[in-house]
C-alpha cells in the first residue's frame, strides 16, 4: 500500500484533497486568533492613549500651569520618546490630550473601538 | 513673556507625572504582550490538537507524514515561513499530545511565553513538565532561568516529588489557581551550595559566613519567597543563651523559617533543639496573621531511618542535605532518582495511614 502511494503520480493531488478540510479548520483557527489579538491590542492601545492624555490634561489644569501647557507637552514628549521610542512625539501626545478631552466619558470610547474592529 | 523664558522647563514637569505616564505605558504594553503570548500558545495547542484528531501519526505512517508536510507547506504559503514550518507543526502536535488538559495550558499561558513551553516538552514525566511550568509562571522565570532550574534537577530535589501523584497535581493546581504555596513545593534536598566555594574541611562558622556573604545566591537556591531576617538570632531561655544560625521569612508561606547548619550527619538530638527554637519564635517573634514557624536542618547527610522514626514533619521540622561540592550531573541524577524511589516505597499506603 505504502509503495503504491509513493509511486503514484496522482499522490500529491490526493494528499492535497485530503488535507483541504483539515486546512480549512486550521485557517479558521489562525484567523480567529489574529482578529482577537488585533482587537485586544487596539483596545489596550486606545485606552493607553486616553489615560496618557488624561493624565497630562489633569496635570496641566492643576496648580495654575495652564500657561505653560506648551512647554509641558514638549518636555513630556521628549522624555517619553526617549524611553518608549516613536509614537510619543509632540504631535501624537497632543492628539492623546485632545482625545481625552473630547471623550470625557471613557465608556463611550471603549464600546466604540470594539464596534469599529468588528465592522 | 520674559517670565516664561526664565523658568527651567524640565522643572515644570514633575517626576510624579512622568512616573504615572511610565506606569500607564508599561502596564498597557505588558497587557498586550501577555495577551499575544496567551493567544499564540493556545493557537498552537489548538492547531496541534486538531491535527492530532486526524490521527496522522498512526499506522499509515508515510501517508500521515505527507499530510502534515502538505499542511505545513500551505500554512507557510498563506501565513509566512516563520512558525509554520514542518518542524514547528510537529512540535504543536507534540505539545497538544503531551499536555492534553487545555484548562491547565490556559492557566499557564497567561504568564508564560511559547519558549517556556518548548523548554519542557523534552522532559519525560507529565508532572515534571507541569511542575516546571507552574513554578516558572508563579516565580516569573525567564526562559533561561527555567532552563537553569531544569538543568539543576529542581523537580527531583523538591520535596513534592516524593509525594503521590494526586497530591502533586493538587498542590500545583492550588498554586496556579489561588497562588497558595505548600511547604512541599518550597523545600528541597539536596541544596546546592557550591557558590560558597568551600571544599574539604570547614567550620560551621565558615559555612554561615559564606552563606551570608553570598546571600543573593543563597536565596536564589533556597527559592524566591525567602527573605533574610537575622543571623545568630539570640534567644534567652531559662537564663541561658541560645543562638539560631539563620532566620528567614517566607513571603508566600507567611511563616518564619529557622535554618540551622550542621556539619556531618543528622543526629536525633537536633530535633529537640530545633523544637525549642521554633516554640520560642512562636511565642516571641511570630506576628498576627502568620503561620507557625518552620525549621530547616541543613546537614551534609541525612539519616533516613532516624528521620522517619522521629516524625519530624509533625513538629514542622525538615531535614535537608547540602552539597558544597557537586558531583557530576549523571552521578547526582542517579542519586536523586534512587532516593526518590526509596521515599516513594516508604510512603504509607492508604491502609497504613491513620
Structure at a glance:
The complex is a heterodimer of chains A (119) and B (354). Chain A has helices at 2-7, 11-61, 69-84, 90-102, 106-118. Chain A is 83% helix and 0% strand.
Describe this structure in words.
The complex is a heterodimer of chains A (119) and B (354). With 119 residues, chain A is an all-alpha fold. Chain A has helices at 2-7, 11-61, 69-84, 90-102, 106-118. In chain A, α2 (11-61) crosses α4 (90-102) and α2 runs antiparallel to α5. The longest helix of chain A has 51 residues, at 11-61. Chain A is elongated, with a radius of gyration of 26 Å. The model of chain A has no long low-confidence stretch (mean pLDDT 82). Chain B has 17 helices and six strands. Chain B has helices at 2-6, 9-12, 15-53, 61-79, 86-98, 102-109, 114-120, 126-139, 143-151, 154-157, 165-178, 183-186, 204-213, 215-222, 269-284, 304-310, 329-346; strands spanning 191-192, 226-237, 240-250, 255-261, 294-299, 317-323. A six-stranded mixed beta sheet of chain B has the order 1-6-5-4-3-2, with helices on both faces. In chain B, α3 packs antiparallel against α6, α7 (114-120) packs parallel to α9 and α8 (126-139) packs parallel to α11. The longest helix of chain B is centred in the first third of the chain and has 39 residues, at 15-53. The termini of chain B are far apart. In chain B, 28% of the residues are buried. The model of chain B is unreliable at 349-354 (pLDDT under 50). The chains are: A mainly alpha (119), B alpha/beta (354). Chain A binds chain B through residues 1-2, 5-6, 11-12, 15-16, 18-19, 22-23, 25-27, 29-30, 33, 36-37, 40-41, 44-45, 47-48, 51-52, 55-56, 59, 65, 67-68, 71-72, 74-76, 79-80, 83-84, and chain B through 4, 7, 9-10, 12-14, 17-18, 20-22, 24-25, 27-28, 31-32, 35-36, 39-40, 42-43, 46-47, 50-51, 54, 60-63, 66-67, 70-71, 74-75, 78-79.
Amino acid at each position: 500500500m505504502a509503495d503504491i502511494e509513493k509511486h503514484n503520480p496522482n499522490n500529491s493531488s490526493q494528499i492535497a484533497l485530503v488535507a483541504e478540510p483539515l486546512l480549512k479548520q486550521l485557517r479558521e483557527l489562525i484567523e480567529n486568533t489574529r482578529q482577537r489579538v488585533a482587537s485586544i491590542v487596539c483596545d489596550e492601545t486606545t485606552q493607553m492613549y486616553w489615560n496618557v492624555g488624561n493624565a497630562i490634561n489633569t496635570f496641566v489644569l492643576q496648580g495654575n500651569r495652564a500657561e505653560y501647557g506648551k512647554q509641558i507637552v514638549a518636555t513630556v514628549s521628549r522624555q517619553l520618546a526617549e524611553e518608549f521610542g516613536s509614537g510619543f512625539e509632540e504631535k501624537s501626545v497632543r492628539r492623546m490630550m485632545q482625545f481625552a478631552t473630547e471623550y470625557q466619558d471613557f465608556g463611550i470610547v471603549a464600546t466604540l473601538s470594539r464596534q469599529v474592529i468588528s465592522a | 513673556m520674559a517670565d516664561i523664558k526664565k523658568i527651567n522647563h524640565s522643572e515644570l514637569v514633575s517626576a510624579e507625572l512622568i512616573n504615572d505616564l511610565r506606569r500607564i505605558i508599561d502596564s498597557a504594553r505588558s497587557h498586550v504582550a501577555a495577551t499575544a503570548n496567551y493567544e499564540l500558545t493556545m493557537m498552537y495547542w489548538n492547531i496541534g490538537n486538531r491535527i492530532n484528531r486526524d490521527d496522522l501519526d498512526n499506522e499509515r505512517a508515510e501517508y500521515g507524514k505527507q499530510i502534515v508536510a502538505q499542511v505545513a507547506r500551505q500554512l507557510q504559503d498563506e501565513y509566512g515561513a516563520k512558525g509554520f514550518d514542518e518542524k514547528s507543526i510537529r512540535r504543536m502536535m507534540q505539545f497538544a499530545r503531551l499536555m492534553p488538559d487545555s484548562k491547565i495550558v490556559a492557566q499557564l499561558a497567561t504568564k508564560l511565553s511559547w519558549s517556556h513551553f518548548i523548554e519542557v516538552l523534552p522532559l519525560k514525566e507529565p508532572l515534571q513538565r507541569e511542575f516546571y511550568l507552574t513554578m516558572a509562571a508563579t516565580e516569573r522565570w525567564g526562559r533561561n532561568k527555567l532552563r537553569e532550574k531544569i538543568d539543576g534537577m529542581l523537580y527531583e530535589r523538591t520535596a513534592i516529588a516524593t509525594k503521590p501523584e494526586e497530591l502533586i497535581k493538587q498542590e500545583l493546581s492550588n498554586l496556579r489557581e489561588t497562588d497558595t504555596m505548600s511547604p512541599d513545593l518550597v523545600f528541597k534536598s539536596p541544596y546546592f551550595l557550591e557558590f560558597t566555594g568551600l571544599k574539604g574541611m570547614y567550620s560551621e562558622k565558615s559555612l554561615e559566613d559564606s552563606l551570608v556573604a553570598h546571600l543573593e545566591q543563597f536565596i536564589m537556591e533556597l527559592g524566591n519567597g525567602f527573605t533574610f531576617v537575622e543571623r545568630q538570632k539570640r534567644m534567652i531561655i531559662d537564663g541561658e543563651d541560645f543562638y539560631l544560625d539563620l532566620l528567614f521569612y517566607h513571603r508566600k508561606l507567611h511563616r518564619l523559617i529557622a535554618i540551622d547548619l550542621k556539619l556531618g550527619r543528622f543526629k536525633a538530638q537536633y530535633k529537640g533543639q530545633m523544637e525549642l527554637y521554633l516554640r520560642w519564635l512562636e511565642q516571641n517573634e511570630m506576628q498576627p496573621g502568620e503561620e507557625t514557624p518552620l525549621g530547616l536542618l541543613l546537614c551534609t547527610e541525612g539519616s533516613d531511618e532516624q528521620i522517619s522514626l522521629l516524625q519530624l514533619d509533625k513538629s514542622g521540622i525538615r531535614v535537608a542535605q547540602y552539597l558544597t561540592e557537586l558531583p557530576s550531573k549523571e552521578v547526582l541524577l542517579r542519586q536523586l532518582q534512587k532516593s526518590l524511589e526509596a521515599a516513594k516505597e516508604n510512603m504509607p499506603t492508604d491502609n497504613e495511614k491513620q
